[in-house]
Structures are given as structure tokens and as C-alpha cells.
Amino acid sequence: MSTAQNARGASIEVQGLTKIYKSRGKTVTAVDNLDLSVGAGEFFSLLGVNGAGKTTTIKMLSCLSVPTAGTARIGGFDIRTQADKVRQIINVSPQNTAVALNLTVRENLELTAGLWGAAKADARTAADRVIAELGLGKTADSLARTLSGGWQRRLSIAMALITEPSVLFLDEPTLGLDVLARRELWNVIQKLKGRVTVILTTHYLEEAEALSDRIGIMADGQLHALGTVSELCALTGKERFEDAFVEIASGSAGKGED
After folding, report:
1. From CA 137, how far away is CA 229, in angstroms rounded?
2. What's the CA gap between 250 and 190, in Å, rounded?
3. Worst-scoring range by mean pLDDT, 6-10, 40-44, 183-187, 230-234?
């Protein structure tokens, strides 16, 4: 089990992070010299249209992909030279719900804790903790395959939290859920604010608006804007965040009217 850096998560410092790769004989710069700072305990959303570079950024920060240039420090550990240390203090709740469908909720949680090195008794205690924290009590002994999509997503987040990470990456946590299930999961996610550092990626703009302390908007591999919802709206002169996002993501923010 990982040891949290502090009770309010770990900070993230990104410096010149770059990812270049070859695709069909062409050189593609997926992330271009990214600089970013996320405070310990902050709930931060990284937004952008498909191909903006956010997924590649998350893969580098979670040590799934090696940067071409630049680096980042998470909880003081360098993702390039101290990846093993970084992996001990982070976890990821992936877009595709990674649960064992033929195990119960409790069994999924105890298995995850055990894979991270917890003894059987400790795994049981950790499972009890996250079951209580995420309101999974009434489904604890149900097979995961019998759960609705919303409850499976909740279980996926619980499996990521059972390691007590300092930094949690949430990749499209409510993708495909109906409105009610999405709002219920928002209530669960909001309880994480201030406890751990959360990096959220989502295409639901209202989700980022409701949950985030700050939002970064990427386009063409670069960070085009960063701030609170009100700051981003003020930057573009828009009243609605969706309109502000469209202007920034399209690259027209600050360029005025044609």
C-alpha cells in the first residue's frame, strides 16, 4: 500500500513536457513544451477536444509513457528518473471500467489491496474503509456484473482509492452514464476534494464546471488557457463556460472578432 505524502495530496510540477512520435511516416507533436503547476489537494480538470494532447499528458504523468523532452515532479518525485516512487503515490481510475465482473464488490477491493502488497487482514480493513467512504455498503456482496454502469464506475474509483494515493487520475469517470447516475457519482467525487490531488479528464463540460477548482484547456498539444471557470469566462468575454471553452479550444480566444 502506498504512503500518502500528506493529508492533502501531492503537488504536481510540469516543466517543458513534450511527446513526439512517428505516425504513418510523419512526425507528430502530441504534447508541446507543457508547463503546469497543480497544488496539493487541488481538483484540477484537463480539457480539450479529441487530439488536443490531454490523454498523452495523463499517460506521461502516470508513468505509462516516457516523455520525449521535459519532465514533471509529483510529490517531489521525477516521473523520468523516479517512476517507481511516483507509482507508489498515484493511482488511475481508467475510462474503461476495470473491475472483475465475476467477483463481488468486496472481493474486487480486497484483490486490489492485495495486489498492492496488503496482507489479508489489512486488505479486508481497507475494503471496509472504502466501502463506507463511497457508499458501497448495500452492494458489497453483489457480483460486479450485476451492478449498473454507475455502480461499476463507483467501484472502479473505490479500487483506485484503496491504495490511499496522494494523486488520483480520473479518466472520463461518468462516460456513458445517464443524468441521474452521473449526478450521483459527482456527489461521490466531490468528497475527494481537498483529500487527494485529483486530475480529471472529461468531455462533459458541466462536470468540469461543477467539480473543478481550476481548469486547463489544451489544443494542438499546448495549454491554451488556465484558470477558474469565472476566469476563463472573463478571458473570453463569455457568460457560459461552454462558449468560453469552444472559443479557447478553437484557438480564437483573445484574437477578437473577424
Report:
1. 35
2. 29
3. 6-10
Q: Supply the angle between the helices 179-190 and 149-161 in degrees, to the nearest 10.
A: 20
pLDDT in tens, 91-111: 999 887 789 999 999 999 999
Q: Would you call 193 exposed, middle or buried from its count of C-beta atoms within 10 A (0-12, 13-18, 19+)?
A: middle
Rounded to a whole number, what is the largest CA-CA distance in the chain?
66
Nearest CA-CA partner of 125 in 162, 171, 151, 154: 162
Contact by Cβ (8 Å): 10, 197: yes
Bridge-based pairing state of the strands 43-47 and 214-219? parallel
Reported confidence tier of residue 254, pLDDT bands at 50, 70, 90: very low
CA 150 to chain CA centroid, nearest Å? 17
105-115 vs 120-133: helix axis angle to the nearest 10?
130
Q: What confidence tens digit (pLDDT) does each residue in 2-28 have?
A: 433 444 589 999 999 999 998 888 999
Instruction: Give which of 134, 171, 132, 147 is closest to 99, Cα–Cα.
Output: 147
**Which residues lie below 8 Å from residue 185, measured CB to CB, with a gap of 6+?**
150, 153, 154, 157, 173, 174, 177
- Evaluate if residue 166 carries a pLDDT over 80: yes
Q: At residue 53, does pLDDT exceed 80?
A: yes
Q: What is the Cα–Cα distance from 82 to 243, expressed in whole angstroms?
A: 40
Alpha carbon distance 117, 56 (integer Å): 29
